[in-house]
Amino acid sequence: MRAQFVLSEIGVGLRRNLTMTFAVIVSVALSLALFGGSLLMSDQVNNMKGYWYDKINVSVYLCNKSNAQSDPNCAKGAVTEDQKKTILTDLNKMSVVQKVTYESQDEAYKHYKEQFGDTPLASTITPDQMQESYRIKLKNPEQYKVIASAFNGRDGVQSVQDQKGILDNLFGLLNGMNWAARAVMSLMLVVALMLIVNTVRVSAFSRRRETGIMRLVGASGFYIQAPFIMEAAVAGLIGGGVACGFLVTARYFIIDHGLALSEKLNLINFIGWDAVLTKLPLILATSVLMPALAAFFALRKYLKV
Fold this sequence. Notes:
Layout: H1 3-16, H2 18-53, E1 58-62, H3 81-93, E2 97-103, H4 105-116, E3 133-138, H5 144-151, E4 157-162, H6 163-206, H7 208-216, H8 221-256, H9 261-264, H10 273-302
Antiparallel strand pairs: 1-3, 1-4, 2-3
Helix pairs in contact: 1-8, 2-6, 2-8, 2-10, 6-8, 6-10, 8-10
């Protein structure tokens, strides 16, 4: 097969259906940009989970004189020294515990002032109102219930709090947004496939006389179909390139510059450029294969070869 003929036919086909080709490029670009964005969102959520789950603690809050009168869990009074020693000993014996850190009332008050010192309520809080606690680092953050079942309701323990539960709500929201993006992406992919099929059909119909002559002179089916398939692949590749440009631009302006979220949100461990660059070959490969396969199956119906 002469490559020059195929390339010339591709150029003719793209120019004849310029409007529809443009629509294919736009729909492929948007759908693959959403596809890449959803992959990067998944990476970001997993990255944040690995970063924050490694830092979260389970806190065992101890009863003090202030809540001994108001909290049913502290009805037997403030925690005693013997109870604190027993709780610490039992915590250190547990196989799920990696590290235990004690926080006194003064330390808790200092941390509270650092976080909420500017609020009106902070001026009314005194150190004796703060709770002593044990901050427990687990070997596996998923094993919070082992600590909760062992210490909830125990004498001297006011409550057991898992910081992972707070983060799970955030990650649940991010995952929901990610699935919504995937739903829109799926819709855009369907639209792109329909446009590709329709474009191939129109192109095959407009060149039915040429393909008829080629059949009469004995041209193979693949020789006749190749220009149409390549047209769709080229249009898809252009759309894939635009999608890659969207992702790179978004990463540059949203995280590094422009909005500069990496500087404004220091607590979030954003994905790096390596995560973006590894997605680009997948997007480009999809942008070529998806239109080419759609064109191939469309031609079997609309181009009798």
